[in-house]
Amino acid sequence: MKQPHPDQQIPCIIENGIVYGLKDIYRIIRDMGHVRYAEVVDGHIRVSGEGYIMSVVANHHSATVIANRRIYLNVCGFDYLNIRTEADGNVHFELVDACRLLRLTPTADLNPEDNTEDKPTRFEEYLPFEQEEFAEIHLDDDDDFIDGD
Question: pLDDT tens digits for 3-16?
Answer without folding.
Answer: 666 666 777 888 89
